[in-house]
Amino acid sequence: MVKEIEKTGIPVVHICTVVPISLTVGANRIVPAVAIPHPLGNPSLSFEDEKKLREHIVEKALEALTTEVDSQTVFE
Amino acid sequence: MKLELGKININQVVIGTESKIVDGTLHICDQDIISIVLEDDRIASCHVEIANPGDKTRITPVKDVIEPRCKVDSKGGIFPGVINKMDTVGSGRTHALKGCGIMTVGKIVGFQEGIVDMSGPGAEKTPFSKIINICLVVEPKEGLEPHSYEQAVRFAGLRVADYVGKLGHDVEPDEVMTYETKPLLEQIAEYPELPKVGYVYMLQTQGLLHDTYVYGADAKHIIPTILYPTEIMDGAILSGNCVSACDKNTTYHHLNNPVIEELYAKHGKEINFMGVIITNETVYLADKERSSDWTSKLAEYLGLDGVIITQEGFGNPDTDLIMNCKKIEQKDIKTVIVTDEYAGRDGASQSLADADKLADACVTGGNANEVIELPAMDKLIGQLDYVDVIAGGFDGSLREDGTIEVEIQAITGATNELGFNHMSAKGN
């Protein structure tokens, strides 16, 4: 899906837990997620801390989306 | 560590009023077995049914299969740290009842349990159609949470296997095999001219009922470690898995791991079998990195020349498999990976979710997406109402006449990644 959308000229950020698979399948902008069962959250955190974590991931993804890349890049 | 494994062939299982083994016939008192299962107050009811090879019988949802075993003249017991007290196992003598299994049946996580047909085309896909299954159909008390139901059924199966296994304590085995692995330096010195080969044994540990236990420890929390291979034959590793049936390792598979069996067969002849490195398959990337760092470090530490790596399950564990392979290869240790494939129904899609050019020696257990039609059977042990949503099934899988059309993913053990089966291909 990442590759098909990018073909139309729209940049894509792949937020995913297993970064090596994302690299293997050829995503260009990758933001690491939390864990496979809960990629964008963490149920062991308090509501406030989890909200901060979620905001951080989304901000990181937006930053990646607006960053020029010339090869596959992982935004740690 | 040296283990004598006495194999007692069971040719027939009869339900009666007494429990004993006489001339290859296992007599079991079903009331005794039901009492053992109902020791757990989370279980509402249990009934015992026998399924023989060749019967027109379908068993589903199958959770686990366990070969009955017992320790002989030992203070400890099988499945240490779980149903027997904690004790290092793998030495002394063990008796195994060959040709039969305790099969736990229950709709714990319906879509992630399996189907076993005792005859017909489905039977050819599962090793459990070739043994006599003592099926425990276990119903939970109302309102019991799935994780608690899973644990109750897991423990019930193990307790019954322990009880039935002990019936073989004083029986003269039909065959006795001896397996021995020595402490590291002695083992290296024994066959200095032979290549040192180890086994990296990946265990499914993704949590949410995808779990494996080592001496009772939840293996998702372990750091990779080393076991003598014989420990595994005494139940050091057992399955708590509710996951796609075709490529999960049941406890029966762990007890009878064919990779360990074959490595021992070549031990001292073609190779020097050094031992087993167990590792997990986790859901955090850092954990995957740590575990694969450790398997490669331990392989190097043991001075291995070659390693066989087996996977359990599919999807993101493909990455654990490739990480293990890549990092071990990068230490100049040769690897062979054993996996299975999800290559689409026509077999034309990419087989694994991850890949690397260092993974250049691969054995496959088959394509789990292959579709099979399972004809209606005369007898059902368990229930069928979940078949449309089973992993490998689809809307309309279960037809009115009782025929089931599913991917072989739904059949217990069909594409086992220890190479337990005999599926093979031949080039022209």
From TrEMBL, chain B:
Record's keyword terms, sorted:
Pyruvate, Schiff base
The answer to whether the entry has keyword rRNA-binding is no
Keyword Transmembrane attached = no
User: Which InterPro entries does this one have?
Assistant: Gly/sarc/bet_Rdtase_B_asu/bsu (IPR016585), Gly_reductase_pB_sua/b (IPR015417)
- Specify the protein name: Beta-aspartyl-peptidase
Residue positions of the PTM Pyruvic acid (Cys)?
C242
Active site positions: C242 (schiff-base intermediate with substrate)
Leader sequence segment: none
Pfam families xrefs: Gly_reductase
Species the sequence originates in: Vagococcus humatus
Q: Which GO terms describe its molecular function?
A: oxidoreductase activity, acting on X-H and Y-H to form an X-Y bond, with a disulfide as acceptor
